[in-house]
Design brief:
About 65% of the residues lie in helices and about 5% in strands. It has about 475 residues and is mainly alpha-helical. The chain starts with 13 loop residues before the first helix and ends with a helix. Bound molecules: arginine.
Length: about 475
């Protein structure tokens, strides 16, 4: 059923109906639409636009329709343009023409933004909650590996030794920032656009503050034209999800690499691996690869919306209907990806012997040589030169740094004495990194304790927000 038509001599051509139809995807907003309609109804009754008795009939009809939608008993049909028209059709079918009274004082322009914001609040909080489980999986694995030495990489080349728990815990830090961004998003975007009407507000709906508050928002958008034109909130949500997706992708890449025969650092549990249809011996890290692969669409969805918004006149334009599919896709992608990746991380078995065996290789202790000289007040640039020369001599004479003779050391720099060898151990190098962010075992242990606190705090604010907005979600 179209929500317009009075001034038209004919209905839309089939091709136009097919083009403009959004109900196949925006039906995801149905329960939020019922909720917003109920609150809008209260406003109309308080303003005397709808008589109390009629208000009761409409309220009962909306509630019954909401229950039917949740129970799968009412859905859209071929005649519906979008979720809003489908719900009005359903309401009128249920209670008669009086159902059409609800359209007073609002437009689909403010209705759709209000529904969409509710959808995003609901789903970003769900994504936040799933992300905390992934963070907890990393926290646990980090703690279990806090005494495992590993080669640290830059440019994917051995760089300096680290503890493996440090390597794993960095992912928790990145994911905590994703949670922060969801929290920031809520602070900025939890304001109600309802009452903006098509663009100028309405003479019939006097109290957007009260409807915004009843819906659970923290306030009302200040400018009605901005209220119906703003899609920053959707773009920002897409960025938050794309950034999270990029983090998941980088995690996926590491696990894929670590599970190769060449690395053999991790064994991914059978439940989180897949086989090959032709090669019976294969156990593939498909979850990690899908984490990497799916980030592409998350970034693409952000790009799609920004491209739609660029250059749009700043009011409602039908282009804005294109805001929803990228958001739904990003949300639904993360809802399937996060639990699988969390399971993969939580059940992964790290082969600590293989991880540790390479900790010293690739002259990973060359920085210790330079630091040794720097501590003797040799300017670091010279110290760096001398350490580089040590590596060169080692390569030429096929030996490790600690195997250089006293004569070879003295020939490279007079301050290089035999006590240098004490510093050329993986454990010594790691133990020396005692600053708060460094890789010494006590530093990393403290970092993980701090991470656990931060994760608990995040879980707390997420559950507070879920609680605070819960009334908003139930029709
Ligand atoms: N389905 C539309 C959308 O998602 C609802 C708003 C339609 N407004 C309009 N003026 N045609 O954007």
């Amino acid at each position: 059923m179209a929500l317009w038509g009075g001034r038209f001599a004919s209905g839309p051509a089939d091709s136009v109906a097919a083009l403009s139809r959004s109900v196949d995807f925006d039906w995801r907003l149905a329960s939020y639409d019922i909720k917003v309609n109920l609150v809008h109804l209260d406003g109309l009754v308080s303003a005397g636009v709808i008589a109390t008795g009629n208000g009761e009939v409409i309220r009962a009809g909306l509630k019954a329709l909401g229950a039917e939608i949740l129970g799968g008993k009412f859905s859209y049909d071929d005649s519906d343009e979008d979720v809003h028209s489908a719900i009005e059709r359903g309401l009128i079918a249920k209670i008669g023409a009086i159902g059409g009274a609800l359209r007073a004082g609002r437009s689909r322009n403010d209705l759709v933004v209000t529904d969409f914001k509710l959808y995003l609040i609901d789903h970003l909080l769900e994504i936040a909650s799933l992300t905390t489980s992934l963070i907890e999986a990393f926290n646990e694995q980090s703690l279990a590996n806090v005494e495992v030495f590993a080669p640290g990489f830059t440019h994917l080349q051995h760089a300096q030794p680290i503890v493996f728990g440090h390597e794993l815990a960095k992912h928790s830090q990145a994911l905590l920032r994703d949670l922060d961004r969801i929290g920031d998003w809520l602070v900025r975007n939890s304001i109600s656009p309802l009452g903006a009407g098509a663009l100028s507000g309405s003479g019939l709906q006097p109290n957007p503050e009260s409807s915004g508050e009843t819906l659970g928002f923290d306030g009302v958008v200040a400018n009605s034209i901005d209220a119906v034109s703003d899609r920053d909130f959707a773009a920002e949500a897409l960025f938050v999800m794309a950034m999270l997706g990029v983090h998941l992708s980088r995690i996926g890449e590491e696990f894929t690499l670590w599970s190769t025969n060449e690395f053999s650092w991790v064994e991914i549990a059978d439940a989180y691996s897949t086989g090959s249809s032709i090669m019976p011996q294969k156990k593939n890290p498909d979850i990690a690869e899908l984490a990497r692969g799916k980030s592409g669409r998350l970034v693409g969805n952000l790009t799609a919306l920004l491209t739609t918004l660029k250059g749009l006149p700043f009011a409602y334009n039908r282009d804005l209907q294109e805001d929803k599919e990228p958001v739904f896709d990003s949300v639904e992608t993360l809802l399937v990806l996060l639990p699988a990746l969390t399971g993969m991380v939580a059940t992964a078995k790290f082969r600590t012997e293989n991880i540790s065996s390479g900790a010293h290789s690739g002259f990973a202790l060359a920085t210790e040589v330079a630091d040794y000289l720097a501590k003797k007040s040799v300017p670091f640039a010279q110290a760096h030169e001398a350490a580089g020369e040590c590596v060169k001599v080692c390569e030429q004479t096929k030996r490790e740094l600690h195997e250089l003779t006293d004569e070879q050391l003295a020939a490279i720099h007079p301050e290089l004495k035999s006590d240098l060898r004490e510093f050329l151990t993986v454990s010594g190098a790691i133990a020396s990194r005692t600053s708060s962010l460094g890789t010494s075992i006590p530093s990393v242990t403290a970092q993980i304790a701090e991470l656990k606190n931060a994760t608990q705090e995040a879980k707390q604010w997420i559950s507070n927000e879920v609680e605070r907005f819960s009334g908003m979600m139930k029709p």
